[in-house]
């Protein structure tokens, strides 16, 4: 999936992945996709809830070598 920006939030604990994701989203246009890489196990629930509450769409997520990858489309 093509993303407008990649955010490296690996090694960060809650709530920092959300804080950095929110900041990165501010730089994108509506419809752009932000790719987030995180290692915090809580990131899946946190980012899913955050995207929904912010009017964004969690397009896809996967786990690879203990890294969680998320693709969030800006609403």
Automatic annotation (TrEMBL):
Database matches in InterPro entries: TusA-like, TusA-like_sf
Matching SUPFAM superfamilies: SirA-like
Database matches in PROSITE patterns: UPF0033 (PS01148)
Source domain of life: Bacteria
Record domain UPF0033: where: 7-31
Pfam families noted in UniProt: TusA (PF01206)
Similarity comment: family membership: Belongs to the sulfur carrier protein TusA family.
Protein name: UPF0033 domain-containing protein
Organism of derivation: Bacillus salacetis
């Amino acid at each position: 999936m093509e993303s407008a920006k990649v955010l490296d939030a690996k090694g960060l604990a809650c709530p920092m992945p959300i804080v950095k994701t929110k900041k990165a989203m501010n730089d994108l246009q509506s419809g752009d996709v932000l790719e987030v890489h995180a290692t915090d196990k809580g990131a899946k629930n946190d980012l899913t809830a955050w995207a929904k509450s912010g009017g964004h769409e969690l397009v896809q997520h996967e786990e690879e070598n203990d890294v969680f990858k998320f693709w969030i489309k800006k609403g």
